[in-house]
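fyi for ur records
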Amino acid sequence: MVHKILFWSGFGVAVRLWQLGIEMRPFFGPSSLWAYPLFAAVGGSFGYWLNGVDIRQNEQLAKRKNQLLEKRKRRAEREAVAAGSNKTEEGSILASTS
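which gave:
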């Protein structure tokens, strides 16, 4: 979690440096130093939000995976029961026709 927040905070600072580079303004001018913590905070909050999204998606995927596995298990049990009853019926049909 922390690595994502730190990465996106650094990305926010990099965006600010890129912005000043495009404008050809000094990177560390005294009037623009307040923007670095702001860009880092915005980037960090995006990283925090993105981490929450990742956690929720993984929970949903795990839940859906368990549902599918249980559904497959029930289907396999139904097919096993159906296959067992078909063999019994076939045996009785063959026995009565012989």
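Residues 88 and 94 are 10 Å apart (CA to CA). thats all i got for now
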